[in-house]
C-alpha cells in the first residue's frame, strides 16, 4: 500500500493517523506541493484532481479524499472502530468531522490561496489573515458544540477515539502551523492534547514528516 503524502497536507495527516490507529503499514510517496509535483502528468494519472492524499492498494486500486479513505479503512479494518455503534452517534461524529473537512479546510489549501493572489491580488498578509480566519471559524464551531454537548467525553464523542478526533486534531494542528494557539478553546485544547499524547497521533504530525522545516 502506498500513500501519496506531503508534510503540510492536513488531509494526508488525517489519513496517516487513521493508518496508525488501524495498524496498517504503508509506503510513503512524497509529493512536494510547493514544487508543484501534484501537477505533473505522473501524479495527474494517479489523481486527476491533482490533490493529496491518494492511497494505492496493492492491487492498484486508487482511493482519494480523506473522509472516504477513513471510512474505507474503518470498514476494511473494523478494530478499533472510528465510528460509534449507534446511528445518532455516527451522525454526530460525521457532522463534527465535516466542520474541518468540508467547511474550513477547503478554504485554506494552497490552490485557494494561490487563486486569491493571482485573481484578486491578495498579498501575503491578506492570505495569512484569510487562512487564520477560517481556522478560527472552525475552532469556534468546534468549541461551541463540544462544550455544550452531553455526548462529549474524554474525546470528541464519549470515551473512544473516533474519526471526529482525527479531524479535530488535524484542524487544530493546522491552526498551530499558522501560528495560532488554542487558549480560547479549552474543550478543544483538552481533547487535542489528550490525542497527541497517543503515539499514533503524535508520530503523524506534520512537523515530524520528511521535508518539514526544522524548528529550534
Q: How does this structure look, described?
A:
It is built from 9 helices and 4 strands. Helix 1 packs parallel to helix 3 and helix 4 runs parallel beside helix 7. The chain folds into 2 domains: about 80 residues, Glutaredoxin; about 120 residues, Glutathione S-transferase Yfyf (Class Pi), Chain A, domain 2 (Up-down Bundle), CATH 1.20.1050. The protein has a 4-stranded mixed beta sheet with strand order 2-1-3-4, covered by helices on one side. It is globular and about 45 Å long. The chain is α+β, with helices and mostly antiparallel strands and about 220 residues long.
List keywords for this structure.
216 residues; alpha+beta; Glutathione S-transferase Yfyf (Class Pi), Chain A, domain 2; 9 helices; 4 strands
How does the SSE layout of this entry go?
Elements: E1 2-5, H1 10-22, E2 27-30, H2 41-46, E3 54-56, E4 62-64, H3 66-76, H4 87-104, H5 110-120, H6 124-148, H7 163-177, H8 186-196, H9 199-202
Parallel strand pairs: 1-2
Antiparallel strand pairs: 1-3, 3-4
How would you write the strand order of the largest sheet?
2-1-3-4
Oligomer: single chain
Task: Catalogue the unreliable spans.
Answer: none
If helices are DSSP runs of H or I spanning 4 or more residues, what is the number of helices? 9
What is the CATH topology assignment of the largest domain?
Glutathione S-transferase Yfyf (Class Pi), Chain A, domain 2
Name given to the CATH architecture of the largest domain: Up-down Bundle
Which structural class should the secondary elements be placed in? alpha+beta
Q: Give the C-alpha Rg.
A: 17 Å
CATH class of the largest domain: Mainly Alpha
Shape: globular
Number of DSSP strand runs: 4
Amino acid at each position: 500500500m502506498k500513500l501519496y503524502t506531503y508534510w503540510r497536507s492536513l488531509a494526508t495527516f488525517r489519513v496517516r493517523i487513521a493508518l496508525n490507529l488501524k495498524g496498517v503499514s504503508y509506503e510513503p510517496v512524497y509529493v512536494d506541493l510547493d514544487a508543484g509535483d501534484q501537477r505533473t502528468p505522473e501524479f495527474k494519472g494517479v489523481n486527476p484532481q491533482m490533490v493529496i492524499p491518494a492511497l494505492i492498494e496493492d492491487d492498484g486500486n486508487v482511493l482519494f479524499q480523506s473522509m472516504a479513505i477513513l471510512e474505507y479503512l474503518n470498514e476494511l479494518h473494523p478494530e478499533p472502530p472510528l465510528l460509534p455503534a449507534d446511528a445518532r452517534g455516527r451522525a454526530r461524529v460525521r457532522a463534527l468531522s465535516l466542520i474541518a473537512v468540508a467547511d474550513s479546510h477547503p478554504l485554506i489549501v494552497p490552490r485557494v490561496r494561490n487563486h486569491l493572489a493571482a485573481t484578486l491580488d491578495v498579498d501575503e498578509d491578506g492570505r495569512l489573515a484569510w487562512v487564520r480566519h477560517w481556522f478560527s471559524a472552525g475552532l469556534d464551531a468546534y468549541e461551541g458544540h463540544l462544550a455544550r454537548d452531553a455526548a462529549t467525553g474524554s474525546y470528541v464523542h464519549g470515551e473512544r477515539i473516533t474519526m471526529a478526533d482525527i479531524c479535530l486534531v488535524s484542524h487544530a494542528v493546522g491552526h498551530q502551523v499558522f501560528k495560532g494557539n488554542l487558549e480560547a478553546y479549552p474543550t478543544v485544547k483538552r481533547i487535542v492534547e489528550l490525542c497527541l499524547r497517543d503515539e499514533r497521533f503524535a508520530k503523524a504530525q506534520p512537523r515530524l514528516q520528511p521535508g518539514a522545516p526544522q524548528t529550534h
